[in-house]
Structures are given as C-alpha cells and as structure tokens.
Fold this protein.
Amino acid sequence: MPSAPSKSRLAEQGRRAVDAISALLLVAVFAATLAQVGARYVFNWPMPWSEELTRLLFVWMVMIAAAGAAHMRIDYFADRMTPRLRRAVSLGVGALCVALLAVMAWKSVGLIDLTRHDRYVALGISVQYLYWAALTGSTLWIIAIVAQGVAHWRGRR
C-alpha cells in the first residue's frame, strides 16, 4: 500500500501545479494575442472576442501566478533585528497579508454576485469569471502564506 505524500512533498506538488497552470495561461494569452494581431493586420479580419479573452486570461494568469511566486522583500531592517524580533515581525507581516487577502476574497464574492448576469459582449460569457480569478488567486495565496509559515515554524523547532 503506497504511503501518503509528506506535507513538504505535497506543498512542492502544489507549487508545481500553480506554476504549470500559470504557464498554460501565459501560452493561452500569447496565442490569443497573436491570433488577434494576425487576424487584424494580416487578414484584415478583426476578432473582438480575442481581446476580451486575452484580458480575462491575463487576470487569471496574474492571480494564479502571484500565489506561487517568491515575493520581493527588503531585508535591510530585518537583518539588523534580533532573531526573536525578526520572527515576530515576519509573523505580523504574514498575518497582515492574510488579512488583506481575506478582505480581497470576501469582496470578490460580492462582485461575483453583482456581475453574475453581466455578459462580455463578444464572448457572451458572464463577467463574474473575472472576479472568480480574484477569489481563487487570493485563496491560493492565503494557503501559500500559511503553508510557508507552518514550514518555517516547524523548521525552527
């Protein structure tokens, strides 16, 4: 009977899945943009749906990729803190990030409900899918921050 994957292996698989989805969305944005430019300027045949699709896919790509990215930090002040203060500040920053992302997720639920009957003109699909990206991305980002915090905490014990 195969054993369940360890938590660190599960976290690595999650990061790889987020990276793969982000890469696929980038390819889709590139393909839609290339098709739009080619159709318009080579064949003189505009495709209005491709611009809406590109915008929608781009938002999804950014929100998903943000959850899996290593984020910029300026360590000037952290390097000058005691280890205990550095851990406390790191915990506070992580908690603040989770709180702000939770607000973003909560507000995106309201926007999903508000736009459920609105449609993209050319695509014909609901505008709510744009705000589903915000909900999905912020939720994945919260999970990543909490997982990183747990891994950091376990590594210190």
Summary: Residues 7-156 form one domain. The mean pLDDT is 87. The two ends are 31 Å apart (CA to CA).
